[in-house]
Amino acid sequence: MGVHEIKPGDVLLAVEDISLSFGAVRAISDVSFDIRKGEVRAIIGPNGAGKTSMLNCINGFYHPQQGTITYKGQKRSAMKPYEAAAQGIARTFQNVALFKGMSTLDNIMTGRNLKMKSNLLTSMIWWGKAEKEELEHRRFVEDIIDFLEIEAIRKTPVGRLPYGLQKRVELGRALAAEPELLLLDEPMAGMNLEEKEDMCRFILDVNDEFGTTICLIEHDMGVVMDISDRVMVLDYGGKIGDGVPEEVRTNQNVIDAYLGGGH
Amino acid sequence: MFYREAGQFKSSYKEDQAVFPILQDRIGIAILLLVAFIGIPLFAGDYFVGAIMTPFLILALAAVGLNILTGYAGQISLGTGAFMAVGAFSAYKLATFSIALGGAEATLPLILTILLAGVVAALVGVMFGIPSLRIKGFYLAVATLAAQFFIEWLLVKVGWFTNYSPSGVITAPPLVVLGYEFHTPAEKYLFTLTFVVVMAMAAKNLVRSHIGRGWMAIRDMDIAAEIIGFRPLQTKLTAFAVSSFFCGVAGALWAFVHLGTVEPEAFGINRSFSILFMVIIGGMGSILGAFIGAAFITLLPIFLNNVPPMIGWNIGVDMVAHLEFMIFGVLIIFFLIVEPHGLARLWTIGKEKLRTWPFPY
Amino acid sequence: MEDFVIEFMFFLEVLFSGLLTGTLYSLVALGFVLIFKASGVFNFAQGAMMLFAALSLVGFQEMLGVHWTVAFLLTVVVMILLAWCVEKFVLGKLVNQEPIILFMATIGITFFLDGFGQTLWGSDIKPLDIGLPTGSLDFGGIFVDQLELVAGATAGGLVLGLAIFFNKTKIGRALRAVADDHQAAMSVGISLRNIWIIVWSVAGLVGLVAGIMWGSKLGVQFSLSLLALKALPVLMLGGFTSIPGAIIGGLIIGAGEKLAEIYLGPFVGGAIENWFAYMLAMVFLLFRPQGLFGEKIIERV
């Protein structure tokens, strides 16, 4: 690819002057920020601040009208979500987007799809190549299942699982892709305290053990401040603060947006 | 002998991923295959083998095809009949083309002819599947009707497809494989059975592979599927291709093995619907379901035609047809209400109950 | 020059006849749109409902020997009863199921109604005559079928009536609320069941009117049910939720089909009206997936 090796601490993804609008509605206006390799980066902000839209731009689901996104040193043109996935960007969703008709195991196995190569014919025959490949990836997925402590629900259709577990399975599916950049859209929304703590632990473990760069969105400031290396704050589609948690916590604009902005 | 899995421990992922992980299931399927391959041809009468079992198997194959597209990949199709027709007429063209080339020596082998006919159907399926990227859900269902009507019209209007047969009817060549002619109903049945068993296994393997998971992912949530890396068009087109391949082979078998002579009308919109019903009643997203559904839909008219006279109730032929319509309608609704996943799901639930029987859990 | 004028007159005649046939398609499509708008159900049974209504109307006329107006009223009662049954025995049991399941259930309804109607009233072709004018009118050399004119006017009237019903009445407002968001509508106290019964009744009524028009034209027979299939490309063109779309889509399909049959048909062996509409709609959809009047959806995750 001709891309130089990106070391921890280097910029993995840079967003410059991005604007996105739907008709007359401006979702994001002129936002720039970057994500460094190996960090936990948070984007926070009130409802409707443009957080999810930002993630959608990063993984190619929305195409911003203005601005550039540079990933691994390469400026990206408008790309499809599956192309972003192929480059190592995985994500979870605000409203769990699991495949309801499939089991936990199968859901996580879908995360391996980009690494599975057997074609129509070898898959039909199964014996030999396809089976070997399937078992190899099954082993990897079982490690993720162990890691997330969801062994007991392996064969359960995800539609029957409680919300907290669904979120965990979704994280598993994203991890199965061995992403370089993991986008988490409100990973703790709708969870109780215990579940939130579990999720925090998983996020930090993923970051620690696999060195995965994480960009997460949260509505609730509390948890985010504890686990993030750097935090960006959006409000009404614009950036109003960016920096390490302490900086952001004392930023007057941020305090206004959260407390005094009349929301 | 109880239906239990107690004491059967799986010590590898391979065993865990087997199609029939439980011993009793494996015994059951072995018995079923023995009966199908040896019992039926030996002991059943010609009528049962030729007029019930063979068409049942072929329609089940078409239902497997549609199930791949609708049940697994979530793309509704009302054009199954058309893809069967493509298979039937391509097989005919392929078979007669080689004869025209020069003598019996040069004919394409029969098996290859039928498989190639499936490939032609797959290509046509892909063509009509291309709109599926932009056209979704019901719009797509309507678009597949375009395939149904257009292909039917084409086969009737363009003489080339029937080698300019004045009646529009094609006659299949004799079924000869490696010099052996399949002639009696039992032989034809075995020929069909072999095809269907091999292809059903292939289908089962496919839906449990990463390709099958891609179809289900697109079905369950297409946006999420795309974001985790499945290419929507490629995934859908593969489903269209594989589905049409199965339907095409079924169509070729229908023309060559079951009917012998066939006209395009045999693959009309009603054929499409009846196969859709097999999928719904048998169970969407289940290979086994396609077989159960096909058995049900094949047997019901026979039942309706024979049972009322037996109990001394004589009703007219057109009345039977109307009754059939009504009963199909009611059954479809009934199954959708009781169990949208069809008889196959009821079968699975039954087995789960049986595992712990006589205890509740 | 003479030839050209005659050609042009003939073209106009074909076009006009196509447009008027198109209004008949629109009538069927209208029933689809009503139900889809209010309940999100893609009602495959609209054609079967039309056939059933027409069969009942003729059946009542024959059986009771009454004036058609009486038979009409009886049929309206039957259609309301049918709507009630559909809600009670089918839709009511399938609340919260996916749209594809509901769609397939309506295929079940189609088969049931086709079988039931013919069991009840027989399957012979029956003439339907309620005194609609027949024969052609001469407009300065262009001949126009009177029945088609009446059909066009009726379709126009129905659309106007439905527009008023939807926009000016309380029930209409409730219908629109339900179409927007089922749960929100229920939470402000709108009864989903009643709305569904009403909307299926109205669709039944539209089906009855369409059935009368088509029945007068072709006789009441099983193929009327298949005509509904022709309304599907109309829907694709017009969008599933747009009443004006159903009308304009019908006109485009009607005119396009007639013109293609006359000017294109001879070159390809004729009988292209079976598929032309579908192909036209499909090609059109490739460029505008939401139909003429459908709303563009912003996808979210």
TrEMBL record, chain A:
Please indicate which superkingdom the organism of origin belongs to.
Answer: Bacteria
**Pfam families linked to this entry:** ABC_tran, BCA_ABC_TP_C
Q: Would I find Glycoprotein among this entry's keywords?
A: no
Cross-referenced SMART domains, in alphabetical order? AAA (SM00382)
- Enumerate the spans annotated as ABC transporter domain: 13-261
Sorted alphabetically, which Gene3D superfamilies does this protein's record hold? P-loop containing nucleotide triphosphate hydrolases
Record flagged with keyword Oxidoreductase? no
Q: Which GO terms describe its molecular function?
A: ATP binding
- Write out the entry's keywords from A to Z: ATP-binding, Nucleotide-binding, Transport
Q: Which PANTHER family match?
A: ABC TRANSPORTER ATP-BINDING PROTEIN, CONSERVED COMPONENT OF ABC TRANSPORTER FOR NATURAL AMINO ACIDS-RELATED
Recorded protein name is: ABC transporter ATP-binding protein
Query: Native species of this protein?
Result: Sneathiella chinensis
UniProtKB/TrEMBL annotation, chain B:
**Principal location class:** membrane
Membrane protein topology class:
Multi-pass membrane protein
Pfam families from the UniProt entry = BPD_transp_2
The record, for InterPro entries, names: ABC_transp_permease, LivM-like
Q: Where in the cell is it found?
A: Cell membrane
Transit peptide keyword on record: no
Keywords tagged on the record: Cell membrane, Membrane, Transmembrane, Transmembrane helix
Kindly list the residue ranges recorded as spanning the membrane. 27-44, 50-69, 81-104, 110-130, 137-156, 189-207, 237-257, 277-303, 315-338
Disulfide bond keyword on record: no
Q: What is this protein called?
A: Branched-chain amino acid ABC transporter permease
Automatic annotation (TrEMBL), chain C:
InterPro entries to which the protein is assigned, alphabetical: ABC_transp_permease, BCAA_transport_permease
Q: Which CDD domains match?
A: TM_PBP1_LivH_like
Q: Which Pfam families match?
A: BPD_transp_2
Keyword entries, A-Z: Amino-acid transport, Cell membrane, Membrane, Transmembrane, Transmembrane helix, Transport
Q: How does it sit in the membrane?
A: Multi-pass membrane protein
| Subcellular location as annotated | Cell membrane
Question: For this UniProt entry, what is the primary localization, expressed as one broad class?
Answer: membrane
The regions listed as transmembrane in this protein's record are: 14-34, 41-60, 66-87, 99-121, 141-166, 195-214, 234-255, 262-287
Give the family this protein belongs to, as stated in its UniProt record.
Belongs to the binding-protein-dependent transport system permease family. LivHM subfamily.
Name used for this protein in its record:
Branched-chain amino acid ABC transporter permease
Q: What organism is listed for this UniProt entry?
A: Sneathiella chinensis
Lineage, broadest ranks: Bacteria, Pseudomonadati, Pseudomonadota, Alphaproteobacteria, Sneathiellales
